[in-house]
C-alpha cells in the first residue's frame, strides 16, 4: 500500500485473534465485577429460609457421610458450601429427630445451629456463600465461551453481561441453595453435548457423562436430559443430508448410551454408593404417584408386584428425594400470584414471574432476538446448533411450569436463563456497528437500561421488580416468598433498630428460618387482626390489631401467608390466616431492605382503621 492511498474500512478492522483477546480481557473484568457484587451482598443479608436447612444438612454430610438430610436436593452444592466450616470442626446440632421420609428435620437442626451460635452464625453463612461463588462464575464463563464459539466475541460478551447483572442471578448466586450450581453444571453438560454432537468421539462421550453426572449431583431436575438428548440426537441427525451410515448410527448411539450410564455412575459415587441398587419394592415411598392404598394404608405401589425385586441403580436418597419432592407438589400448598391466594399453582406462574422480575431492557433484547431470528444467520451456527442451545432451557421451563401443585419460587427456572442469554448474544454480532448502527444502538441502550435497572435495587436483588411492575416497593402485589422476601433482611432491620432506640418495645412478624433473637433483636408478636367475620363478635375483639406501637412485618406476611413464625419466646407460632394484612391500611415509617416494613402506629390512626374493619375503638 502506497503512502498516499487511503485506508479501507477492512484495513482498520482488528484481526480476529486480537478481537478474541480483547473480548477475553473484557470477560475477565465482567466476571470480576460479578464476583465483587455477589461477595458484598453475601455479607449484607441474613440467612434465607432454605439456606438454614442446607447448612445443617451439609455439615451432617461431612460429619456422618450420610445424605438423609435435605434429600429433595442432591448434596454437591451444600458440600462445597460447608467444606470450609467442616474443616474448622463445625458440626450440626445433635437432636433426636426422625430422618425418615417424608420428615424434613434439616430446618429444625438449622434453627438450632443458629440459636446455639448467635450472631457468630451469620459469619458462617457468609463464608459458606463465598465458597459457592465459583458456580456463578462458571455459568457466566460458559455463556461467554459458548456464545463466542457460536456467533463471535461480541455475542459472548453480551451473553455474559446479561448473566452477570441479571437480578435473579444476583439474588440467588450469593446463596448456598442449589439453583446456581445446578444452572452452571447443567449448562456445562449441555455445552459438552453440543460439542459431542458436532464431533462425536469416545473422549467427548466420556466428558459428556462426567458433566451430566455432576449436574445431577447439583439438581435432580436434569434427569429430563436422559430423554431429551436421545430425542435431540435422533431428530437432528435425521435432518442431516446425507444420512449417517448404519455403522455411524451405531457408533454414536453407543457413545451416547455410554455417557448416560457413566453419569449414573458419577451420581452413585457422589452419594458414596449409599443405598445404591436397593430393590424397588423396599422404598418407603410417600407420594401419591408412587404409592397405592392397601388395607386402608398407603404403601409402595411396587411392593406387591413383579417389579418389587428390581434393583434401582441409583442412591437411595436420590430416589427418595424425588418421591418427597413429588409429595410436596401433591400437597397443594397455598400459592400467591398477583394478589390472589389459592391451594394450587398456575401454569403461567413462571411467565408472569419473569414478566415482572426481568428488567425491561432484557425483555426488549429477547423480543428483538426472537423477531430477528429469521433473517440473522451465522456461518458458524446452523439451526441445529441453535436448537441444541435453546431446547434444554425451553424443555426445563415447560417441565417446571407443568408442576402446578404449588408455586412459590421463580428461582426454579433460573437454570433456563444461561441458555436464553447465550442465544440472545447473537444480537451483538448480527447487529454490529459496521452492519446496522440503529440496531447496534438499540442493543447497547437496552443492555445499559437492563444493567441500570438491576443495580438500582442492588444489594437487595431478591426484591427486584421492574418498572412496569411498580418496582421493589410494589413487588409484593405480584409475588411473595423467595421472589421478594425470604428472610434476607433481618440484619438490615437490626441496623435500623440500632439507629432508632425509640422503636422499643418492638412487635415483629418475621418470615424467616431463624429466631431473630439470635441476631440481637428482642420482640413480641404483633396483635393478630381479623381473619374471619366471627372474630368481630368474640370477647377478645378489643385486643385485636391494629393497636398503637412500633411494629416490623415481613411483606410476605403482609399479604396473608399462612406460615410458622418465631414468637419472641424461643418457640414458633403458626399463622392460620391473614393475621397481619391490616398493616396494609397504614403507610410504613421505614423499611429494612424491601422485605420488612416498619410501622409506628398512633391511636387515632388505629381507631380509623379499626372502624373500617368493624372493631371497637380503643379508649
Task: Give an overview of the whole structure.
This protein is α+β, with helices and mostly antiparallel strands and 619 residues long. The chain has helices at residues 9-12, 16-44, 49-64, 76-87, 106-117, 120-131, 133-150, 153-165, 167-172, 179-198, 202-218, 225-238, 246-270, 316-330, 349-357, 360-372, 383-401, 417-424, 426-430, 437-457, 490-499, 555-558, 603-613, and strands at residues 291-294, 297-300, 335-337, 340-342, 506-509, 549-554, 564-566, 572-574, 590-592, 596-601. 51% of the residues lie in helices and 6% in strands. It has a 4-stranded mixed β-sheet with strand order 5-6-10-9. Mean pLDDT is 92; it is low at 1-13.
* SS class: alpha+beta
Q: Average pLDDT across residues?
A: 92
Low-confidence stretches: 1-13
Q: How much β-strand is present in the residues?
A: 5-15%
Q: Biggest sheet, strands in spatial order?
A: 5-6-10-9
Number of strands: 10
Report, as a whole number of angstroms, the end-to-end distance. 96 Å
Task: Output the number of helix runs.
Answer: 23
Q: What percent of residues adopt helix (DSSP H or I)? A: 40-55%
Largest sheet: 4 strands, mixed
- State the oligomer: single chain
| Radius of gyration, CA atoms, in whole angstroms | 27 Å
Shape: globular
Amino acid at each position: 500500500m502506497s503512502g498516499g492511498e487511503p485506508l479501507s474500512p477492512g484495513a482498520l478492522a482488528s484481526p480476529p485473534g486480537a478481537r478474541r483477546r480483547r473480548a477475553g480481557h473484557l470477560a475477565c473484568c465482567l466476571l470480576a465485577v460479578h464476583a465483587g457484587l455477589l461477595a458484598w451482598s453475601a455479607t449484607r443479608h441474613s440467612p434465607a429460609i432454605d439456606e438454614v436447612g442446607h447448612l445443617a444438612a451439609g455439615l451432617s454430610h461431612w460429619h456422618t457421610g450420610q445424605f438423609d438430610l435435605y434429600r429433595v436436593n442432591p448434596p454437591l452444592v451444600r458440600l462445597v458450601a460447608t467444606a470450609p466450616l467442616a474443616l474448622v470442626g463445625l458440626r450440626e446440632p445433635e437432636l433426636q429427630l426422625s430422618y425418615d421420609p417424608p420428615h424434613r428435620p434439616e430446618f429444625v437442626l438449622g434453627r438450632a445451629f443458629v440459636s446455639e451460635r448467635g450472631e457468630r452464625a451469620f459469619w458462617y453463612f457468609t463464608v459458606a456463600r463465598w465458597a459457592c461463588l465459583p458456580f456463578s462464575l462458571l455459568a457466566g464463563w460458559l455463556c461467554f465461551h459458548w456464545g463466542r464459539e457460536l456467533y463471535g466475541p461480541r455475542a459472548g460478551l453480551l451473553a455474559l453481561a446479561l448473566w452477570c447483572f441479571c437480578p435473579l442471578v444476583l439474588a440467588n448466586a450469593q446463596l448456598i441453595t442449589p439453583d446456581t450450581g445446578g444452572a452452571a453444571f447443567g449448562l456445562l453438560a449441555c455445552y459438552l453435548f453440543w460439542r459431542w454432537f458436532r464431533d462425536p468421539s469416545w473422549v467427548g462421550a466420556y466428558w459428556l457423562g462426567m458433566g451430566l453426572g455432576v449436574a445431577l449431583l447439583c439438581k435432580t431436575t436434569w434427569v429430563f436430559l436422559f430423554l431429551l438428548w436421545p430425542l435431540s440426537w435422533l431428530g437432528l441427525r435425521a435432518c442431516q443430508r446425507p444420512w449417517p451410515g448404519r455403522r455411524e448410527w451405531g457408533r454414536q448411539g453407543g457413545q451416547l448410551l455410554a455417557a448416560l450410564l457413566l453419569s449414573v455412575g458419577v451420581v452413585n459415587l457422589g452419594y458414596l454408593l449409599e443405598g445404591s441398587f436397593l430393590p424397588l419394592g423396599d422404598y418407603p415411598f410417600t407420594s401419591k404417584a408412587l404409592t397405592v392404598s392397601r388395607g386402608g394404608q398407603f404403601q409402595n405401589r411396587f411392593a406387591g408386584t413383579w417389579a418389587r425385586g428390581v434393583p434401582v441403580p441409583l442412591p437411595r436418597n436420590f430416589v427418595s428425594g424425588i418421591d418427597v419432592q413429588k409429595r410436596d407438589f401433591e400437597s397443594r400448598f397455598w400459592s400467591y400470584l398477583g394478589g390472589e391466594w389459592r391451594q394450587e399453582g398456575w401454569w403461567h406462574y413462571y411467565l408472569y414471574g419473569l414478566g415482572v422480575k426481568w428488567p425491561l431492557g432484557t425483555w426488549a433484547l429477547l423480543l428483538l432476538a426472537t423477531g430477528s431470528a429469521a433473517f440473522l444467520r451465522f456461518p458458524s451456527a446452523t439451526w441445529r446448533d441453535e436448537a441444541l442451545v435453546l431446547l434444554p432451557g425451553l424443555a426445563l421451563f415447560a417441565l417446571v411450569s407443568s408442576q402446578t401443585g404449588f408455586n412459590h419460587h421463580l428461582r426454579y427456572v433460573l437454570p433456563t436463563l444461561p441458555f436464553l442469554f447465550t442465544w440472545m448474544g447473537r444480537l451483538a454480532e448480527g447487529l454490529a456497528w459496521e452492519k446496522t448502527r440503529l440496531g447496534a444502538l438499540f442493543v447497547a441502550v437496552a443492555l445499559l437500561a437492563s444493567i441500570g435497572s438491576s443495580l438500582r435495587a442492588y444489594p437487595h436483588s431478591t426484591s427486584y421488580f421492574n418498572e412496569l411492575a411498580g418496582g421493589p416497593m410494589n413487588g409484593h402485589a405480584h409475588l411473595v416468598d423467595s421472589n421478594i422476601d425470604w428472610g434476607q433482611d433481618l440484619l438490615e432491620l437490626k441496623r435500623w433498630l440500632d439507629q432508632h432506640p425509640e422503636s422499643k418495645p418492638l412487635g415483629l412478624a418475621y418470615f424467616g428460618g431463624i429466631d431473630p433473637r439470635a441476631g440481637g433483636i428482642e420482640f413480641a408478636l404483633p396483635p393478630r387482626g381479623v381473619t374471619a367475620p366471627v372474630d368481630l363478635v368474640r370477647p377478645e375483639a378489643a385486643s385485636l390489631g391494629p393497636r398503637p406501637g412500633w411494629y416490623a412485618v415481613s411483606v410476605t406476611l403482609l399479604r396473608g401467608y399462612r406460615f410458622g413464625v418465631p414468637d419472641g419466646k424461643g418457640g414458633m407460632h403458626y399463622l392460620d390466616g391473614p393475621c397481619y394484612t391490616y398493616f396494609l391500611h397504614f403507610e410504613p415509617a421505614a423499611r429494612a431492605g424491601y422485605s420488612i416494613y416498619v410501622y409506628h402506629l398512633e391511636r387515632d390512626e388505629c381507631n380509623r382503621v379499626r372502624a373500617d374493619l368493624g372493631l371497637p375503638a380503643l379508649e
